[in-house]
Amino acid sequence: MFPTSFKSSIAPMFGGFLLAVLSAGSFSASAAPTENPKTPAAGCQWETIAISGPEEVKVGTSQEYLALPENGTMNEGDRIVYELRKDGKLVESVAKEKYLRFFSEAGKVEIRAILTRANECSSEARKNVRIYEKTLVYVGDAGSSITPAVRDALKSRSILLRETGAAGSSSIPGSRDYSSLLEKYRKDVEESDYVIVAAKRPAEFFEAAARMQALETQSADAPKKPPFSGKEIYVADEGNGYLLSLTVAGYAEQLGMERMWAITGKNVSNLLMLMGASGYVATGIASEIDFWKTSGGSGFRKAFNRIAYAGFPISFVGFVLSLTAGALVLVIFRQIVGFHTFGTFGPLFLVVSVSASSAANVAVLLFSAVVAIWMTEKAFSKFRISYGARKTFSLGLYALISIALLSSLKWTGLFDGLDLYSTQVAILPFIFVLLVADKLYGEGISWSKLKESASAIAQFSTVCLAAYVVMESASVRNALLSYPETAFVILAAIVATGRYSGLQATEYYRFFPLIREKLSETKREE
Fold this sequence. Notes:
The chain is an alpha/beta fold. It has helices at residues 4-31, 142-145, 148-156, 175-191, 202-219, 241-255, 268-277, 282-285, 299-308, 314-337, 346-356, 359-379, 387-412, 427-444, 450-472, 474-482, 486-498, 505-510, 512-525; strands at residues 49-52, 56-58, 61-69, 79-86, 89-94, 98-103, 107-116, 122-132, 134-140, 159-163, 194-198, 232-236, 259-263, 287-288. The strands form 3 sheets. It has a 6-stranded mixed beta sheet, with helices on both faces. The chain has a 5-stranded mixed beta sheet with strand order 2-8-7-4-5, with no helix packed on it. A 3-stranded antiparallel beta sheet has the order 1-3-6, with no helix packed on it.
């Protein structure tokens, strides 16, 4: 009917059009897949299948996937076919019990498992898998710098983000929290390419890592590879890279640290965004730390480092040195400002207690101690009993009240800090708080003079807060650890402050009406 030339020209066109229509239908079906896209044959019941295996894998690794029906049983004659699809196209089809796949390039793929029973009834399951090139471990407050925009940027660069959540502790053994964190994320750290340490005290984080490495090396037949070898490490240390280099230099070789950069806390978000945009961010936003040049220094500094780091954790040494800075704050408020502190060391006792446990724990203990002392004084106000007996009785009552109160809060879910008392060392904050409460009750709490009492307690609280801020400052600790001779400068400042004999700031306020009257008389005489 049609000429041969017409047939030869129209046939390929019609075939191409038909193929395009079929391809479009196939693409639309795979572009928006449902969980169970197939319809079972008549008389068959659809089964739910679960595919076990990682959803995020790294380039250059092999992963195993296993598909099982919901009831977990396979019968004779059943078979499973695994299909690997990328961009809707079939890449590989394997009929095996388990599917082992080597991933060689980044991107997204879909693994399908098609279960066909012996009676020809079939079911299907799918798992989306993301293949990434590099891993980033972020240690710090996950809510401060990890925004949706940051996550999207990192995904676009095929970088897997591992957030370790809030880290950092104010306790004297501050590496405790970091140790548990490293135990949980040790594998992620070992497999990572980038590590960002935005923790409150970065030196204590590396100390915990070094301690863990030493324990694992001693217990293993063969030493483990250092966890930070071959990684780019960025540390948020308020831009003070030199001080940080001095505090972490002792751990560099043990942990295999080769390159490290210091960044400011406010630049963490910018660093993450640049990492997602270019993959290399050291230039312009971070300064490289040269901790190989820290062997110099004064003879005193070398001797101090040799003694202090022979057995004490860096967190403990830093906290002990910070006591000198806290003492300077205390004497300034007492001698120059004129604040009431309920004893010489009352504020420092309270700061040490908060640092060793927590503010919530100390608040409960302080309340229990005041109640115990008040009950003791009321109970024996009309009975003749010695001063020592009253104090020891209040101690026993304090122990009972505090345990009962802490346990009650634990049961109600309002307080979960009972693990703080896992060792007997926790008795020190327990006793410190009692000493502070005894001073508060004896010198400050007077129901007949509420205004004066409130003022004295407010002054005491101000001194405690100021000492706490100074002693908990990472910059202060790094400075004292890097330059321990600074402690002698602080001691000299304490002596100079103690020789102050002028009017205190509070005395100027108290005598201000008299001063104003004297000035008025002088003007009238003129």
